[in-house]
Structure formats: structure tokens, C-alpha cells
Design goal:
Helices cover 49% and strands 14% of the residues. It is α+β, with helices and mostly antiparallel strands. It has 3 domains: 5-112, Butyryl-Coa Dehydrogenase, subunit A, domain 1, CATH 1.10.540.10; 120-229, Butyryl-CoA Dehydrogenase, subunit A, domain 2 (Beta Barrel); 232-382, Up-down Bundle (Butyryl-CoA Dehydrogenase, subunit A, domain 3). The protein has a 4-stranded mixed beta sheet with strand order 1-4-5-8. The chain has a 4-stranded antiparallel beta sheet with strand order 2-3-7-6, with no helix packed on it. A two-stranded antiparallel sheet has the order 9-10. Helix 9 (312-337) runs antiparallel to helix 10 (351-358). It is globular and about 80 Å long. The protein binds flavin-adenine dinucleotide. Flavin-adenine dinucleotide binds next to strand 1 and strand 3.
Length: 391
């Protein structure tokens, strides 16, 4: 189902209204319960938020990567936990199976993502290992099955998932990248266990927990790609997702800027609105400059993505810059709001929640050290040349 330009613009408006209206309102309770109500999933389905990013053949709108990121910018203005859930739905949830699943698995499951008949979390991080390849969960072949043992931590969406994309070691004695493999695991498989974790600082409701696997037998047909492709699958999938993290930061930062300007216009000190003070004007100019640069970097990434270019370096750069942006903008927002910005239910909007929610972005899809490494590898390879595609 293709959208006309006008339909797409209307859709963006609808998603912004949803994020800043019913979603914001619902989040007040979620901050305490840490669980999405069924009403959230219902609204997300009704507003095509599981469907919009899918290719047309799987029930999607056939949008370009730029359009997908534009939709994500709009819902990222809302609560962080919902943003995390919907960002995942727009990307890793279905993309890994589409890119690396067998034809049999794709035929069975790909048309089930569009209305959340199925939803799949992504489990890489471990307590006993570092970010990325340092994986200790093992899968040992036994006839047509793999027997999986180990634990994952900090995993999002564990409470609403039907499957897990699981990264494990199929060759624990090796130190080569090819020791890792990836599986698409049904959460109902015996031996699969969810281990609760405490509430997070922000992004509440997104079902964070640990996962434990005890002698979990998974049929070989659920292997993604080939044995030994686990790291490639994780890194390729996370590369795209990093640009989606960057656009999440963009959506949040844009809303923070708008709230800040509104407050600075209203707040009068010593007989003048804050917005008339040069010091405040300079800060607001810095906020807008960071945001504008980030938006252009993301659209540049999207152009490369749609042209089939290698996007790892630019996706990492987008995420890296987006953290700088959201840090500058969230600090400035809180400073300009003064004391009322530190309280829940501020009359202007969820200032303190936005500040808490955005801190997760330092970690999602890897910390800054990892982004810098990826950016560096790209620059080393190109000798410092950063290609720009003309329109
Ligand atoms: C809200 C949230 C959602 C998440 N969702 C998921 C999920 O769904 N699935 C999943 O698999 N993971 C998930 N994670 C985990 C996330 O990917 C990790 O937190 C992140 O990759 C950092 O790993 P770590 O927490 O183990 O930090 P550590 O690896 O302990 O790193 C701590 C610090 O040390 C630095 N550091 C680490 N190693 C080095 C090094 N070699 N050289 C220099 N500096 C280094 C890091 O940059 C970081 O600043 C989530 C995390 C959060 C907070």
C-alpha cells in the first residue's frame, strides 16, 4: 500500500499527535507500573506503527529509509520506553529475519510482524562479557538440534516478545569471529527463562530483563544465515539500527528545543522574558545548530542506505553525533527551565522525563567507544574520504 506525499505528511502529523497526546498521558502510569497497558499496543497497531517500515510484500507501505526515519522522529517525541519498542518494531524486529532467515522461516513468519502477531527481541549483551563479540552463551550441536546454555542481560522487550534473535558461541574454544552464530528462538522453548531486573532510570515500560537458557534445544532450521555468521549478523543489523537511535535522539532533541523556546518566551525575570537575554539566545542558537547538523547527517545516511552503499561508518557517526546533540540540548533545556524543569508534570511538557529517557541512548546499540571504533575503521579504509552522494 503506497502513500501519496500528502498522505505521508498527514501520517507524520498523526503520529506526532499520538506521541504527545495519548502516549504521553499513558506514560504517567507506566512510570510507576513499568508495563505498557494493552491500550498502547492497540493504538500502535491501529496507527500502523508495526507496519509502516516493512517492505510492501510483507504488508508495509514501501517507504524509503528517509521516510521511515521521519516517522521515527515523530514518535520519538513521546515517551522513551514506547519509542524504544516502536524503534525496534521499525527495524531489528523484522529486519534480521528478512536479511538472514531461510526461505522457510520467512514464508512462515514475515507477514506476522505487520500487526504484532509476532514480535522478536534481540539478545547479545552478557554480564560476563564485553560489548559485541565477547559472548559466552554456548550452543552445542546434538543431531538436528543445538543445545543452548547461558545468560543474557539488559534485554529490551522481553515481556511482549514471541521470539528472540539470540547470539551464541557455537565454537567456544576458538578466538575467531566465526565462533559466533545467531538463532531465531521461540520464547516458549523449554529451558527459556526471563530473569526480572530493577526499574530503569528512564524509558520505562520497555520490558527490560535478563534471559537464562538451560539445556534449551533449538532445531537447526532456526539457525540464521550459516553457522559462524553470528557476529556478522549482529554487527550488520546493529549498524542500521544505530541510525535509528540517532533519529530517536533527533526527535527528543527537537521537542526539547521547542519546549525550551516556549518556556523562555513565557518566563519573565527582572522585567524581561528570558528569550530577550543574549545569553539565553546564544544557548538556543547552539541547541538548534546541533539539531540541524544531526538531521542533515541522518538524511545523508538515508540516501546512502537507499543507494545500497556501505553505511556502517556513517551510521556510527550519526549515533556518535546524536549523543553529543542530545546531551547539549537536554542540559540546556534543564538549565533554561530552571527549577520547574526538575519536577514531574511540568506544565510545559515532560521535561524531566525527556532528560531521563535520553540517557539510555549512550548505551543502546553500543557505547560511544564502539561507535568511534566503527567510524575509525571506515575512515582508515577510505583514507579519510567521506563520500557525499549528490541528489
Ligand atoms: C536501555 C537499554 C536497552 C538495552 N537493550 C539491549 C537489548 O535489547 N539487547 C542487548 O543485547 N543489549 C541491550 N542493552 C545493552 C547495551 O547494548 C549495553 O549496555 C552496551 O552495549 C554497553 O555494554 P555494557 O553495559 O556491558 O557496558 P561495558 O561494556 O561494561 O562498558 C562500560 C564502559 O566502559 C567502556 N568500555 C568497555 N569496553 C571498553 C574497551 N575495550 N575499551 C575502552 N572502553 C571500553 C564503554 O564504552 C562504557 O563506557 C541495553 C542497554 C540499555 C541501557
Amino acid at each position: 500500500m503506497k502513500m501519496t506525499n500528502q498522505e505521508f505528511k498527514d501520517y507524520l502529523k498523526k503520529i506526532r499527535a499520538l506521541a504527545e497526546g495519548p502516549f504521553d498521558e499513558m506514560q504517567k502510569e507506566i512510570e510507576v507500573t513499568n508495563t505498557f497497558p494493552q491500550e498502547f499496543y492497540k493504538l500502535a497497531i491501529e496507527n500502523d506503527l508495526y507496519r509502516f517500515a516493512l517492505p510492501e510484500k510483507y504488508g508495509g507501505f514501501g517507504l524509503s529509509e528517509k521516510q521511515i526515519l521521519m516517522v521515527q522522529e515523530e514518535f520519538s517525541r513521546g515517551p522513551g520506553g514506547m519509542r524504544m519498542h516502536l524503534h525496534h518494531a521499525a527495524d531489528l524486529d523484522w529486519r534480521i529475519l528478512d536479511d538472514f532467515g531461510s526461505e522457510e522461516l520467512k514464508a512462515q513468519y514475515m507477514d506476522k510482524f505487520q500487526d504484532k502477531t509476532i514480535y522478536a527481541n534481540f539478545a547479545l549483551t552478557e554480564k560476563t562479557g564485553g560489548t559485541g563479540a565477547d559472548v559466552h552463551t554456548t550452543a552445542v550441536k546434538d543431531g538436528d538440534y543445538y543445545v543452548i546454555n547461558g545468560e543474557k542481560t539488559l534485554i529490551s522487550h522481553t515481556d511482549c516478545s514471541d521470539f528472540t534473535y539470540l547470539i551464541v558461541s557455537t565454537d567456544p574454544t576458538s578466538d575467531k569471529d566465526s565462533r559466533l552464530s545467531a538463532f531465531f528462538v521461540d520464547v516458549h522453548t523449554p529451558g527459556y527463562e526471563i530473569v526480572p531486573m530493577p526499574h530503569m532510570m528512564g524509558c520505562r515500560g520497555a520490558g527490560h530483563a535478563g534471559l537464562k537458557f538451560t539445556n534449551m534445544r533449538v532445531h537447526k532450521k532456526y539457525l540464521l544465515g550459516k553457522e559462524g555468521m553470528g557476529l556478522e549478523i549482529a554487527m550488520h543489523s546493529l549498524a542500521v539500527s544505530r541510525a535509528h537511535i540517532a533519529v530517536s535522539n533527533l526527535g527528543m532533541a527537537q521537542r526539547m528545543l521547542e519546549l525550551t523556546i516556549k518556556r523562555a518566551k513565557d518566563r519573565v525575570t527582572f522585567g524581561k522574558p528570558l528569550i530577550k537575554r543574549q545569553a539565553i539566545q546564544q544557548t538556543i542558537a547552539d541547541m538548534g545548530t546541533e539539531i540541524n547538523a544531526l538531521r542533515l547527517m541522518i538524511w545523508d545516511f538515508a540516501k546512502d542506505y537507499d543507494a545500497g552503499k556501505d553505511i556502517e561508518m556513517k551510521a556510527a557517526m550519526c549515533k556518535l553525533h546524536s549523543i553529543n546533540t542530545v546531551r547539549t540540548v537536554s542540559d540546556a533545556m534543564l538549565e533554561i527551565f530552571g527549577g520547574i524543569g526538575y519536577f514531574e508534570d511540568c506544565e510545559y511538557g515532560p521535561v524531566e522525563r525527556l532528560y531521563r529517557d535520553c540517557r539510555a541512548m549512550w548505551l543502546e546499540e553500543g557505547p560511544r567507544t564502539v561507535q568511534r571504533l566503527t567510524a575509525f575503521r571506515g575512515l582508515e579504509k577510505s583514507g579519510g574520504v567521506i563520500e557525499y552522494l549528490e541528489d
